[in-house]
Model the fold of this input.
Amino acid sequence: MKKIGISFGLILFALLASVSLSANAQPYPYQNPKLSPKERALDLCGRLTLEEKVGLMMHYSKPVERLDVSVFQWWSEALHGVGRNGNATVFPITMGMAATFDTLLVERVFTAVSDEARVKHNKARRLGTQREMYHGLSFWTPNINIFRDPRWGRGQETYGEDPYLTAVMGKSVVRGLQGPADAHYQKLLACAKHFAVHSGPEWSRHRFNAENIKLRDLHETYLYAFRALVKEAKVAEIMCAYNSFEGKPCCGSDRLLQQILRDDWHFEGLVTSDCWAVDDFWKEWGHHYSESKTIAVSEAVIAGTDVECGETFGSLKDGVNEGRIKEETIDKSLRRLLEARFRLGDFDDPNLNPWNRIPDSRLCCKEHSDLALEAARKSIVLLRNEKNTLPLSEGETQVYIMGPNAADEEMQWGNYNGFPLHTITLAEGIKTIDPSATLIPWKRDVQQQVEAAKDAKTVIFCGGISPRLEGEEMNVNEPGFKGGDRTMIEMPQDQRDILAALHKAGKRVILALCSGSAIGLVPEQQSTDAILQVWYGGQAGGQAVAEVLFGRVNPSGKLPVTFYRNVEQLPDFEDYNMEGHTYRFFRGEPLYPFGYGLSYSKFVYGKPRFADGKLTLPVSNKSKRDGEETVLVYINKVGDVDGPIRTLRAFQRVDVPAGGSKTATIPLPDSAFEWWDAKSNAMRIMPGEYIIHVGDQRLRIIR
Done:
């Protein structure tokens, strides 16, 4: 009997081992990398319990250990470099990148950003810290809202006020982050935000209702860039906004998330809420839209919100049990999330994914530092240069540096930032080129500052505002600021007084103006000799500014926003119709118009010609200095009284040698003549008569 028992035990062990080996040899379909992400998501979704499904639909997606589903963090930031996750290369703010009008540069920047993001994620996976926030592969950028009003504090996160510029810059960001479209594994997930009709005020965003928006404004302005990123760049994610649109919270708007995004544009990616935006459905401070948390989460998912930044989606299980939402509806959203993770290779052998082999040395490498410097150089806009004050001579004596931003590292980082290994401040950059320059400690006292600069011949005043004053839903107690936004657009009064006093004292005054948005500079037209708009320039911003000041770099940036004279030129902040907003509909006289930017060279445009879908024109450099000019091409439709005065539809940077000429050849495809058709209430390519504006040249064409 004993021998028989041993034999039976061996046979049983062999059978169990065989079953185990068979199971490993035949994995579940979702574990098979040869199947499509859609097939794998469908199989995995069918194996999950309702509680497990709900746990996967919040920004911290819980693990399902029985099915080898790991933690996944949907919330990471990369506005202008990997943000909130330790050391990273910090590039100029996106408004500064928009000022470069260089789409290839922006794609290179975000390719570098995605390299650093992958390095950080790979390291987190090796160390087992991927559970921590901001260590994931889903990045909630770019912000492609239209910067319709300079009072909006988050405007610095956008690519300016023009829909076309925003669209082409946004597409470059997506390409850089997500990697080649034909790659087997996606590099990262990019996210276009905030959908839609969202650009302040910050203080009322949780309850604000954007309503009575003209259909034309909605499609030609607010949705234009989103449609381009969905249809052309195949962006992986869309983030719905805090505000309401036509009476429904954006994250509960079937008009936005279903009719427009899914039905009209055929978006196949996923929708994430803004952080705790679903709470705004039902909490006291919000929209008063839903009666309870359970109803709110059910309505959000039914409308098309797939993943929540927050924890409220935990109530979806109650929603199913109460009959407010069907489990099949939850499955539809969950499958979209799982598909995205499969495209990243999140469930596969890490050794099979080439993005996991990016070396750690790519983080904060010299190549990325050089790229940050290139971007900062190209972002600087020369606004004023009376009597050729600039460039300064190297080694010039009696140069003094002062102002609140002269030695401020953190100001240069903007918001949603990472932390560079080293930041070159404006003062440091200037002193590197002119070691004899004197830095005066900043004080807000006019008399003390002027007295400290009594021996100066030239004062470089590093002024403006900072990300500590303008930004997202902030608590700022300074005159002219409210909740992260601004109530006036001038510089702080103490700075204006000091500039005026320096000018009165006979100093040559150069203003290096730091901001994320437009500044009203009417008195500064009298109290300064030169003005450089330098934005928040990132880790190399100080070096770039110094190189432009002393002529090592010829400025080439152009304004991506209108610089108004004051708020009296602006409509009500909460008026979302476009009349009176941005250069496309503003009929007044701005201080500096959209697209403005001086150079140390003098460019002259010849006569443009249009044929075979291309605009050609000669660009001459009537100076003794090589320069790079950005040719901006605007269009308006003749007889279109409700349309924009003119609207940007193409641009190109052109290198022109001193005394030489180059012919710019700029594509103007059929899509450049896509216009609002009131008869069909849709965007379509419209025949008719158009005027092409390029520099001081005009060309009338029939299409």
About this structure: The CA atoms of residues 216 and 261 lie 17 Å apart. The mean pLDDT is 95.
